[in-house]
Amino acid sequence: EKKIRCLASECPPAVLINNLDNQTPLHSLLEHRPGVGLVRHIVECGEDACSAISSSSPSSSLVAAWTKRRLSLTPPVERKDGENQLPLHVAIERYADADVISYLLCRYPKGKAVKGPSGYLPLHSAAMWGCVERVLRELIRGDNGAKLIEEVNDLGQTPLHVVFNPDEADPNNARRFAEKWYENKNSGDREDHTNTALDGDATIDGPPPNLLSPMEIFEIIVSRYYTYLRTP
């Protein structure tokens, strides 16, 4: 983690460069479930680089190099990868710590309404792959969040549909989620790691032990939507 911090600090513009899979360093980092401190550092380095390049003289070598390579100045949290995923999609599907997901939502609140592969919202991903309660409630918080419960993906499915219905592209997704939850439930370790003090750069191994069951996800979404419909 210290090496990543050092590299990003030494060359902040590198945080904005995509690899051959069109991933930013932030996308790649989130696949390894880092702590919120390291994620914050990468995001801030990227935002600082955007500001520095935007405010530089058009004749500067940095701007010239950026223009020549046709590189984007979109902040890292708003960038999609080659699979049409925001960092938020990756974080949810890789069971990132709740603090990391909260931070990404804070930096880019509109991200929860952005559709990814096959028209999946982050809420679709959370409903299908599972998440902890704090993450689910943040995704459906407020009127804007509640309205997302009505949104459909490219298969015409709302987030409620994908809780139990397998994805057409991978019919084993729903079963894997159920098996993962059942395995965690019976592991004897149900400690809520989202409330545990973690080193800001620490990584987390394995799915969270407090992963919501499919029925719990269903009940929370239905309850939130019912409240939304009854509120004047």
UniProtKB/TrEMBL annotation:
Asked if the record carries the keyword Repeat, the reply is yes
Q: Name one GO molecular function term.
A: actin filament binding
Source organism per entry reads Odontella aurita
Q: Where is the composition biased (Basic and acidic residues)?
A: 182-194
* GO CC entries: cytoplasm
List UniProt keywords, sorted A-Z. Answer: ANK repeat, Repeat
InterPro entries registered for this protein in UniProt: Ankyrin_rpt-contain_sf, Espin/Espin-like
- What ranges does the record give for the region Disordered, renumbered to this chain? 182-206
Query: Can you name this protein?
Result: Uncharacterized protein
> What biological-process terms (Gene Ontology) are attached?
actin filament bundle assembly
